[in-house]
Every structure is written in C-alpha cells, then in structure tokens.
Design goal:
- The protein is built from eight helices and 17 strands.
- By secondary structure, it is α/β, with parallel strands linked by helices.
- It folds into two domains: about 240 residues, QueA-like (3-Layer(aba) Sandwich), CATH 3.40.1780.10; about 70 residues, Thrombin, subunit H.
- The chain has a nine-stranded mixed beta sheet.
- Helix 7 packs across helix 8.
- It is globular and about 65 Å long.
- The protein starts with about 25 loop residues before the first strand and ends in a 6-residue tail after the last strand.
C-alpha cells in the first residue's frame, strides 16, 4: 500500500490542545461488518459497560520521563535543546538535539549546576550523551515531550500530570500511551470488580511516532522499543477468553510476544503492523484518533479494515470529535473481517 492511502483532511481546530477531563471524553464505538460498519456515539464513562465477561483489559504501564532538556555549550549563545530518545545505559542516552549540526564529539553541555553531559559521538540524526552528575535533576528540570501539534508558548508544570496515565509506573517512555489518558482510578477499580486487568510495559520511543517518509509503506523501518511481560501477566493473558488492548503500543507488545501463548519475557520489538497482518493475540482495541499517514493509523486500519477506519474517521470529523493525544477515543469492538 501507499502512504497516501492513509491520508485524510482534519480541520486544525479539531486537534485537541488541552487535556480532556479523565473519564469524560467522547468515544466512537466501531463495530466492523462485512458491509457497512456500525458506528455508535458514546462517552468514555460508559466504557466499562461495553466489556464482556471474560474480557481481559491490558494496559501499558510505561511512565513518561520529562525527556526535553535545555542546556548550554561553551561558546554558543543559543540554548541547546535535547530530546532523550533511547537509553544506552543508566547514564548514557541517544538523543535528538537542536542545533545538532553545531555539536561534535567531546562537547560539554551544562543543564544545571548539578547535571552535565558530554557528547560521546554523533550518529545519523542523533547524538550519544554521557551524563555526569545528579540524574534525578532530569525529573526536576526536564519538560514533558508533548507532540509538536500541541502548541505551548511556555512549558506547563501541569503537563507532568496530564500527559501521564493514572497507572503509569515503569519509567522509560518519551511519549504517553495516550489511549490510557482517559481512565480514572475509580473507573479502573470499577472494571476490576468484573474483569481482569493486566499490565504490561512498552517504553514508547521514536518508533511509535516517527513519520513514514517513503511512498511504499512496505519500505518503512520501525525503530525498536523495549517491552516486558511479567510471569503474572503472561499467566492471566493465557487464561483470557478475549483480550482488550488499551492503545496501539499494547497491541504491538502483545502481537510481538505471542507465540501460541504468552511467556514472561523482556525484549525489543520493531513490529510494523499494516493492512493484511493476521492478528493473533488482540481481540478488541481502545485507541485515540491518529495522524494521517502514521504507523498508528496503519495499525488500526489493519485491525478494523481500511474502509471501516475511513468511514469512522469521516464520521468523527463530521461530529467534531477532538483528535490526537489529548483528544477523544474510539473503541473497536472486534477485528475486521477481510
């Protein structure tokens, strides 16, 4: 398929700029059919009632780190902006940097009185930073890595809470698994009374949101992201009658780890799911609305069917749903039939 097969026009005023009140967003319920899909308008508060007995709800409990840092290099008047993208070790990170062309191996960057970094090497599109000093400073001085379509004149301290799921636990993501932003703790407690909730971890990195630049979708290569499934999670997943994934990162983790069943494991995945993929693990999907031509839109199109997603997105635009990270959501009740 071509990248342009996943294009659509979104009016700019439908890009959510502010976080939705948790539990109060709108939800488009999509039921794929062999013919016309069934589309129903709900609020997310009703999501627990749409779960069936035996459904296991699977959450990605990664925790977003405030990965945007601003520092200085001796001899430069302009601040250096760094986005940490991938840990090499506890104190070594790959990062995007601006202005990257002005940096070279050996440069020293100062972020605060107690946090510095040395440029160890330059790679294609990134630099490798060796940090020195108090790494806990990153949590204090770092800025949450909001997507560029969310406009901010100045960073907000409140983003450290609003751009984080209520169940976030395992540090390591540079973007939020945004389908989870809709849940409140009370809602999860309500669901847990009737359905099993399982937590897995995929640390969202540049692989999830890097744009597809090639015309032929098959030529796109995903960056690897780290994931982990515990013994307890694997056991519960293997007992599930059906699996409801919260977010595309959860789908990618489960589909990567499934091999006739689940086992506890740590690993990396660069799985790229496009139409034609045969799903093995996930039965239903809660997800946000995704950018045109993105790998995420390709995944949901693979799950529900290309034409189903086209019609669902057109309906959401007509009904003025809000899109992307801070926007509304869609619940795909079963995989499409092809």
């Amino acid at each position: 398929m071509k990248r342009t097969d996943f294009s659509y026009h979104l009016p700019p005023d439908l890009i959510a700029q502010e976080p939705r009140e948790r539990g109060k967003s709108r939800m488009l319920v999509v039921t794929p059919r062999d013919g016309e899909p069934e589309l129903a308008h709900e609020t997310f508060a009703n999501f627990p009632r749409l779960l069936a007995p035996g459904d296991v709800l699977v959450l990605n409990d990664t925790r977003v780190i405030p990965a945007r840092l601003f520092g200085r290099r001796a001899g430069m008047t302009r601040a250096v902006e760094v986005l940490l993208t991938r840990p090499v070790s506890d104190a070594v990170w790959e990062a995007w940097a601006k202005p990257a062309k002005r940096l070279k191996a050996g440069d020293e960057l100062t972020f605060s009185d107690t946090l510095r970094a040395r440029v160890e090497e330059r790679r294609e599109g990134t630099v490798v930073l060796q940090f020195d000093g108090d790494l806990t400073e990153i949590d204090r001085i770092g800025v949450m890595p909001l997507p560029p379509y969310i406009s901010r004149d100045e960073p907000r301290a409140s983003d450290k809470e609003s751009y984080q799921t209520v169940y976030a636990n395992e540090r390591g993501a540079i973007a939020a698994p945004t389908a989870g932003l809709h849940f409140t703790r009370a809602m999860l407690d309500e669901i847990a009374k009737t359905n099993e909730i399982v937590r897995i971890t995929l640390h969202v990195g540049i692989g999830t949101f890097e744009p597809v630049k090639v015309d032929d979708v098959a030529q796109h290569v995903m960056h690897s992201e780290r994931y982990e499934i515990s013994e307890d999670a694997a056991a519960k997943l293997n007992e599930a009658k059906s699996i409801v994934a919260v977010g595309t990162t959860t789908v990618r983790t489960l589909e990567s780890a499934y091999d006739g069943g689940f086992k506890a494991r740590k690993g990396e995945t660069n799985i790229f799911i496009t139409p034609g993929y045969q799903f093995r693990a996930v039965d239903r999907l809660l997800t946000n609305f995704h950018l045109p031509e993105s790998t995420l839109l390709m995944l949901v199109s693979a799950f529900a069917g290309v034409e189903t997603i086209r019609r669902a997105y057109a309906e959401a635009i007509r009904e003025r749903y809000l899109f992307y990270s801070y926007g509304d959501c869609t619940f795909i009740r079963n995989r499409g039939h092809f």
